[in-house]
Write a structure and sequence with these properties.
The structure holds 2 protein chains of 2 kinds.
Chain A: E1 4-7, E2 10-13, E3 19-25, E4 32-38, E5 44-51, E6 57-58, E7 67-73, E8 76-81, E9 90-98, E10 101-104, E11 108-112
Parallel strand pairs in A: 2-11
Antiparallel strand pairs in A: 1-3, 3-8, 4-5, 4-9, 5-6, 7-8, 9-10, 9-11
Chain B: E1 4-7, E2 10-14, E3 19-25, E4 33-38, E5 45-50, E6 56-59, E7 62-67, E8 72-77, E9 86-92, E10 103-104, E11 108-113
Parallel strand pairs in B: 2-11
Antiparallel strand pairs in B: 1-3, 3-8, 4-5, 4-9, 6-7, 7-8, 9-10, 9-11
Classes of the chains: A mainly beta, B mainly beta.
């Protein structure tokens, strides 16, 4: 149980384009989902907290107009990287929470060329 | 006060040995302490977690020891195996706080040599 999926697992896009990443909780309903970014050999950096039916709460320094988050249902949250640039290349990971336990997706590797 | 300090940064253990990773925190409002295991190119997987009303929790070869007065907790991996080679993150959470955000340690890269 407590499986979280992400799609796509990896994506390459050209600079200036937008890319959408989906995060789904497959066998449970999650009232809260989180989006993280991880650089090589570093810890996870929280980008935003997403609650179903309400606006996401972004961490300080994260551009909300660049990283658009939509939490349309209790099992789906999406992250759209708009007007992507090479510096946005990273490993993006979502998690879904059940009470206080957080379960992570497998991650999405984004490369912007 | 929101930080979780994790050590060591890297660890090499022989197969069959005990791996020990330590974490310390300052915020006494934290009330949930999970450990995550992450393999390269994968998302973190919840390994084991503890709440501060117990001092130890064991699941298979993995044990969390929790010292509330010292504000420290540690992960012990008994009979370490090469398949345990991964990065381990401790974390802390104040459930019911303003936000249910996990505060992560910096990670420990464990290598178990055969």
């Amino acid at each position: 149980g407590a499986v979280v999926s992400q799609h796509p697992s990896w994506v390459i896009c050209k600079s200036g384009t937008s890319v959408k990443i989906e995060c789904r909780s497959l066998d449970f309903q999650a009232t809260t989902m989180f989006w993280y970014r991880q650089f090589p050999k570093q810890s996870l950096m929280l980008m935003a907290t997403s609650n179903e039916g309400s606006k996401a709460t972004y961490e300080q320094g994260v551009e909300k107009d660049k990283f658009l988050i939509n939490h349309a249902s209790l099992t789906l949250s999406t992250l759209t990287v708009t007007s992507a640039h090479p510096e946005d290349s990273s490993f993006y990971i979502c998690s879904a929470s059940v009470i206080y336990e957080q379960y992570f997706g497998p991650g999405t590797r984004l490369t912007v060329t | 006060q929101q930080q979780v300090k994790q050590s060591p940064q890297s660890l090499i253990v022989q197969k069959g040995g005990i791996s020990i990773i330590n974490c310390a925190y300052e915020n006494t409002a934290f009330d949930y302490f999970p450990w995550y295991q992450q393999f390269p190119g994968k998302g973190p997987a919840l390994l084991i977690a503890i709440r501060p009303d117990v001092s130890e929790k064991k699941e298979g070869r993995f044990t969390i020891s929790f010292n509330k007065s010292a504000k420290q907790f540690s992960l012990h991996i008994m009979d370490s195996q090469p398949g345990d080679s991964a990065t381990y993150f401790c974390a802390a959470l104040n459930y019911g706080g303003a936000t249910n955000k996990l505060i992560f340690g910096t990670g420990t890269l464990l290598a178990v040599q055969p």
